[in-house]
Amino acid sequence: MTTALASGTRPAQRKKPVFRTPRPEDGVAVWELVRDTPGLDTNSRYFYVLWFRDFADCSLLATVDDEIVGFLLGYRRPEEPDTYFVWQTAVSPRHGIPFLGVKLFEAAADRQRGRGARYVEATVSAENKAILMVLRQYARKRSAEVADRVLFPSAWLGEGHHDEVLHRIGPLDRAPARQAPEQQPAAQQPSAQQPSAQQPSAPQPSAPQSPVRESAQQKENAA
User: Which 8-state DSSP code applies to residue 79?
Assistant: First the structure.
């Protein structure tokens, strides 16, 4: 996993980010962010444009005033569709939003968790203490375990490349769905069948409503 989780440095300009699904036309802006971020693997513009066509649903952008200030690339593994793999993520060092990289990761992972993912994976070098802390914190808050093993040895990846250590979080419980305010429980929906005039229906008691609330505690962690 190639990642750069930068914290903001200009508190006066901090704004609330908007997370959204990327589109192919966002590929160039993301490519420029990768190009300008030290330590990230630089792919072609075509790579990001194509990724946002085929894997947009598993990726996420962070924007402020429609400017892309962070991104995350991920996908569901074809052989293990309940596993969400996070591959590359970065945020702009000038975004001015504290812990934006952490919030971006948690938002993307929780979105896939809500869609049935039971495991979240990422490969991280042992030296990347910041992202390792993010992964462990995410697992701890969701009462999940973290298992790690070497996925690809450095000898496979070229001179100067570190071992890619796989960190696997899970199993995760499915995120509870949030009930729409205007939606009524089935027991309270009016019946489409009209009562017979000869046999008037007795009023039926309504079933007690048990709303489901989603817990979305966001602990910020210094990257």
Answer: T
- pLDDT bracket for residue 4 (50, 70, 90): low
Decide: 147 and 116 in contact? Cβ < 8 Å: no
Q: Whole-model pTM?
A: 0.72
- Which two structure tokens, joined as six digits, stand for 70? 């962070």
In angstroms, the CA 9 to CA 92 distance is 11
pLDDT at 13: 52
Give the three-state DSSP class for 149: strand
CA distance 134 to 189: 44
Beta strands 164-170 and 119-124 are: antiparallel
The SS3 call for residue 109 is helix
Instruction: Report the amino acid identity of residue 141.
Output: K
